[in-house]
Amino acid sequence: MGSDSGAAPAGDRLSGLEDAVLGHVLSFLPADEAARAAAFSRRWRHVFAHVHTVALEEPDPPIPDYDGNWSPGYSVPVDRNAGVPAPPTANRVSAALFGRLGGAPLRALRVGFHAFSGLNAGLVDAWLSYAMGQAGEELHVDLRLRRAPVCGRRYSLRRRDGGAEDTDDEDGGGQAPAIDEWAPFPWVYDPRGGDEESDDEGDSQDDDPASPKSETAAAEDATPTPYENEYVAPRSLFSCAAPRSLRIGPCRLDLPAAVALPSLGTLHLTQVTGAVQRLVSAFPRLADLTLEACDQLAALDVPPGARLRRLALRCCHDLAAVAADSSELRAFEYRGAVPAPSFLTLRGGGRIASCKLDFCGAEATDPPELARLAGFLQLFVRAERLHLTSARLGCGAALAFPAFPALRHLELTGMVPDDDATSAVATVTTILERVPSLETLTLFFLPEPEDLEESEDLDVDDEELLDGHKLRYDRHAPLAVPDAEIPPCLRETTREINLVHYEGGLAQRTLAKFLLRNASVVGEVCGEFAQGPLWIQTRLMEEIKGWVVNKSANMMFF
Question: Where is this region: Disordered (predicted)?
Fold first, then answer.
């Protein structure tokens, strides 16, 4: 069929849009890509001035070529993808900001450093000053000065043979695990972002701006030199009416006499020292608060006027008491040791709908700690969504798990040792008996440690790493599912079961078999396998399909 001769000729309809519309479109790209797009033609040449969002992330350094001729002490690593070197991230951010002078009001500034240098502190101050001066009715600031984990605590669990030494420290297991404990290497949270086993541990701690220091040391460091990597947030940042959200860290606060951020609704502080409590108390409209690794913060009292809808406390291990109004609180997140009974005080009698609890460090095993765990979980029994992470799946102590009558979505994350199949089934069964309305169950299996991953030998080649996968399948292994009463939710309400990072270990297979063979109303099963050979993944997939009772269920595997 011939073409319509009366049809309008094809053309660049995008370039026919107004500059403000094109600038809005480019604002969804990283700033350097938006600048390249604006250089396409003369029509686009001045469009970048209308971009209202400047976002840049410092790229990761190149992966060293250990198979080549590079030696750590004699030359720089070989970059196999070497090309024209990119300008420093600080220069790119400055060019993106000052390249839009006289343009549209700035709506958002988002910058992420891989490793911040104190020499760039003056530039960062200039960016913030520009952002506040060029802001419109609202401004969102996201300034992450170091891309590194925020906590150095490992997940560790004790063997059930009773041989492990019982540690009884107040912070809930921050000490190094005993000899007969397990500590999975991939889930290490290193606050320094480097090698955890430093030759001089004290010097490494001093390099961390968020590490607790004595009063003498704090006085000595009160005025850091320009060559130190600690960034001091400028006072002008806390006296601006435009910011709606602020994410910053690591840094030190130097607040003005009067903090004036009347429109701020979201605050996210990572490894921030200084007057955190006074900063939080200054926001009358605060709705979303996140504190990460603010180690010098001992107590937090959110003012009653702030109607929080979300509160997240991650790895603030010195934090001993938190008080907040819960009348509008809908989401709560916590990561740390099992807290004391007086840790959290919620005023207002609201209902938290979504809860994420992550108990890092050693596994809770002694009765006093299990009692604290039960009391802490009791605060969230009205939740509809719960994500529970611990060293052992389900905290290894189902008796501490209270009834959640309204829970619809449950995600359990933790390790399931191969010699612990009976206990794993009993734990998950007991938990499911206390969630009668459960619709979606997700099990995320943390890997057990592997000697190859913990090796410091840099001569491990790719073939050894591939052979070191943890995916396994033994068709002759006896899957003796223990006798257990089928939880009512499996028979009546559970419609979806997800198995994430499934490795095919004996205990994992036993647990999966018990769940899938008794989930009579399940309509969707999703399996995400750990990395390994395709033929093992295929065998595990076929086995899981065979266990599903409802053969018409939608089954997906990755």
Answer: 158-227
DSSP H stretches of helix in 262-355: 276-280
> Distance between CA atoms of 385 and 321, rounded to whole angstroms?
24
Distance CA 298, CA 320 (A): 6
Query: pLDDT digit string (tens) for 264-302?
Result: 999 999 999 999 999 999 988 899 999 999 988 999 999
Token pair of 68 as six digits: 């080549």
pLDDT at 50: 80
Mean pLDDT of all residues in 468-496: 85
pLDDT score of 545 more than 90: yes
Question: How confident is the model at residue 36, as a pLDDT?
Answer: 74
Residue 497's closest CA among 550, 418, 455?
A: 550
By the 10 Å C-beta count (0-12 exposed, 13-18 middle, 19+ buried), 381 is classed as middle
Window from 107-121, 274-288, 418-432 with minimum mean pLDDT: 107-121
Residue 109 lies in a domain: no
Domain count, the chain: 1
Q: Name the DSSP letter for residue 229.
A: S
> For residues 329 and 307, what is the distance between their CA atoms, to the nearest angstrom?
7
415 lies in a domain? yes
Give me the CATH number covering residue 404: 3.80.10
Q: Does residue 113 lie within any of the structural domains? A: no
Own/partner pairs, 447-455, CB within 8 angstroms, 24+ separation:
447/184, 447/186, 447/415, 447/501, 447/503, 447/530, 448/182, 448/184, 448/415, 448/417, 448/418, 449/182, 449/183, 449/184, 449/185, 450/185, 453/185, 453/186, 454/185
Per the structure, the complete domain to which residue 396 belongs is given by: 367-453+466-558
Minimum mean pLDDT range among 107-116, 269-278, 351-360, 521-530 = 107-116
Tell me which amino acid residue 517 is: R
